[in-house]
Queue: 3 jobs
Job 1
Amino acid sequence: MWKKLSSEEINTRVFTALDRTIDYKTRIPLGIPGSHLDSKVFYTDMPMLKDAPYLSSLVQNPNHIGCHTLGESEPFFEGTHAIESEVIRICAEDILKGEPNQHDGYIAAGGTEANIQAIWVYRNLFVNTFGIKADQIAILCSEDSHYSMNKAANLLGTQLVQIPVDFTTRAMSKEDISSAVAELSKNGIKHVIGVANMMTTMFGSVDSVEDYVSSFTEHHMEFRIHVDGAYGGFVFPFISEDDSLSFANPHVSSVTLDAHKMVQAPYGTGIFLVKKDLIHQVYTNEAQYVQGLDVTLSGSRSGANAISVWMILQTYGPNGWHEKIHLLSYRGDWLQRQLERLKVGHFRTSGSNILTLDAKAVPIDLVTKYGLVPDSHGGEANWYKIVIMDHVTVDALKPFIQELEQRLLE
């Protein structure tokens, strides 16, 4: 599915999709509670729009309510719906090694929504299949997992078990996982959702799916595995041969990605991916006025976000994206060598563009000056992280290293 396209090919494809999407200026539907952007406020007739497909999609304002990999959806916006479906296939098949046409998904408002969507699907699956209550289901994740797990448990009424990690390696031990699962089993909990991180937001650390599976199997648990790749989904598959966190692993049922991080799409662009025959667990049958009903947490969504992701991925193509990520990884190699030279304690997953520094080695004024992020704003920080994004070059890193070296010498 994923191929590098020229700017002319991208423009043609997007404008063709917009031609198949309702233009409120040329066709006046009487029943849709929506319209193009307000022309009294926004410049909607600028000549530049004819060469700007993303801006044109913002103006035309297609609604992407529903899940377009399921087939039937609102026909008024079918052109741009097809582009979103293609993004889902590229992510599920080309990046995460899934089988063709075996996944559903949608562009969510962010990684938080996508993670909650996954827990919602599995909670309903367990409730509908086994006749249990929500509080008889547990989410298992590491203590380094994103706070969306706390939100999901709170919103959906499930239990949440956070497993400690080693301070230095940021890894859960197999023994701690097994102990937590044994305690759940002792308390009568037999249905669990294991959340494995494909690079945590703070450390870039990676969890073991197999350690979950072996413990769940040992204690005869009914389980599903969700992978939180909100940060690492567009990084880890390109820096590692490990495919255990992808759809190549039969135990992985869903994955969260986040295009407004590494892909540099507009904020509010998460991606939820799930294997076929699962998302129907969250059909909202009461949404009868929506063709195809709705299975998403957010409902109405801007089609422009989906178009932005498609345009970015098609501009790079798989080889160009591989080069982009490895350039960031190279900068990470340079920074790691400097930290090792200065004997500054740090954590880094091999190839990652996140390096997290021991807080004891970094003066607080340098933290403020260079915008390092602590692991806690509410108490004493143990770690500060540097994230090497597209704009964080070696030239941008050098002044920090030079000042840090001077301070350490002093």
Job 2
Amino acid sequence: MLTITDQQVARLLDYRGVAAILETAFIDLARGEAAMHPRQRSECGGARLSTMGAIWGARGVAGVKVYPTVAGQFGFAVLLFDLETNVPLALLDGQELTRLRTAAMSLLVASRVLGPALGRPARKLALFGAGLQGRSQALALLEQFRFAEIHVVDPAADPAWCEQLGHASGARVTIATPEQAVREADIVVTATRSPTPVFDGQWLAPGAFVCAMGTSTPKVRELDDRTMQRAGRVIVEWLPQSLVEAGEVVLWKEGRDIDRVVDLPRLFLGDAPWRAEPPAITVFKSVGVGLSDVATALLAVTRAREAASGIGR
């Protein structure tokens, strides 16, 4: 059985490559050629154990991600199986895999929603949270979008990192207040652990794309009712899991319009448009699902084998 460390995952994978395999996986899910089960959580003595998994029949693999949470810290591992031989294929450290697939999913959905529909280049990014995931979100979006301004909202934001981001992006990067960041932003990303909304949805510009992925439990949320109510389209990864876990949807107090909440399988089938008629706001609420982990793990295994065999040298 192949073992792949976080350091190897970071070297093997890139945001565009992960976004591409995620798209393929969710197209297969829409066609019935993949299946998954929602996250399961168990708690004891202050520790929590979570598992989530999927079968990707079209690619002949199945897998599960498992992670304990202790004192607010996570430890991830992904076990991948070969369905033809029915034996374990690979064991992967899951920290880098989770970081990359989460950011790549945002890249995938933002590209689908904003590409031709925006009608002009995205000019401003508002980034809430400049930790590991927040930084990854910014870097992933830079694969597709070129911003003139990036406003960072984080009391612990590192000015040196903001300067580096400015050099990498060519944008003017500023540490800002929530209102300064959200006003006139084309893309708003929330990558925090805040249990309460981090900005007022009234500040959102018409046509803005909001991507929230900092939380995955039903009792907390980064987005307020105003944001949800103004959204012409609320996109989630997979309804059976998101309707239970996504606090933004569960706690939506003004009355959920379930017709506005659509998941990726439905969108990839073409049963609904990615974006409501402009200038509607679009919200993407990500909680993380097992198929994303399995697909990303398979890409890492494929590239590890190619590297070992000298393919591409």
Job 3
Amino acid sequence: MEVLQWAGIPTVLFLAPPSPEQLQSFESFAAFGVAGCSRSMSPNEMEVELKSVLRQLRDSGAEIVHYKTCSTFDSSPEIGSIGKAIEIGRELFGNGVVPIVIGAPNLGRYQVFGNLFARSGLDTAPYRLDRHPTMMQHPITPMDEADLRYHLAKQTKLRIGLYDILRLQKVVPASGFNLIDAADCDAMLFDVLLPEHLLKIGEILNCVAKQRTPSYMVGSSGIEYALTQFWETASQLEPTSVAVRPTFGAVEQIVVVTGSCSPVNDRQISWAEQHGFETLALNSARLIDVNTSQSEIRFMVESALGRLNLGANLILHTSRGPNDPRIALAKESMRAMGLSELEIRLQSGRLLGPKLGQILFGILSEKWFSRVGIAGGDTSGHIARELAITALEAIAPVAPGSPLCRAHSKNALHGVEVFFKGGQVGKDDVWGTMLRGTNIEHAASLS
């Protein structure tokens, strides 16, 4: 949504497949998406839910249907299988070769000879994914393989090809479609190291889209970066400039809920504490325990409001990094519920995310905020649903991959500005940016 929006393609993101009436209410938009939770589903669950959503997208009249993955490709054979998503797409869209683009230099994500590298935050050197400080110990889908061909081979029997960086540098892009379609594989990974590689890939993807409509593609926002770069070069879009992208002003107070275990998220909380924010530790084990959940939610809402009513900027968090003892306590609570290790990985976001949403909704029901922050890839979708958000519209960039959005809802939260971010997204001062804004003329200073 962010990449398309700033390229001049108005885009809206729905929280569930939209009805024809909903689409008509956003008729000025040229692209739309559906935010789902398939990254935390089993293959059997994906078969049911994803097939239904993709069928609706296929029949929407769009030329391109993109199954959006995380740019760190976190997935496994048991949970969030990207291989399964490729299989479902090929079944619904035909048996052509599915392009897969994961690299996105703007996000600090690079693929070279099939191996994925990622920065830990925006200011570190890139790590090979199986050595990445967050991804190698991700609580749901830890990454132990950086070569995405081998990683996908654990998830699907489809043949995965590679359009490597040397081949990409030599190829005449206009011939790219034939090279893909004639390839002896079912899906094709594209190496990406530099922004100019995305331009070549964008022309290839555009050729694919013109030859097969609708076309099914898989990957990160590298798909949109590639296509929009090519469309601008081919004069299909007006050239855009970072200088004219919208800014946003300061607000007097914000509240943030984070469900991330990332060390980047921990650094961001630490920065906020050092610059006047208050923090409140959430007890995940009590929140997911059916015997204590509701009383704990009420207690946390009251505790938060006590601080917020005194003017604090507040961050409520479930973890301060991957070694926070609350993670082990939450897992122990789930084991006591009779869940297996696999079920814990499948269910943890579903058990905890709605509780975080209920806490935030309880706060917002008592005290109005014009801007709120939500962090955590596996929990944020559940939080949004508890807030009864129906759609999101990007209004200004904050951090690559996480724009400031305006929420559409049928309740009192309609129009609230919401900043959703993954645990690894953003610089250390991201919550300060959310408070003071990016409009320099009206920026608030933090002591």
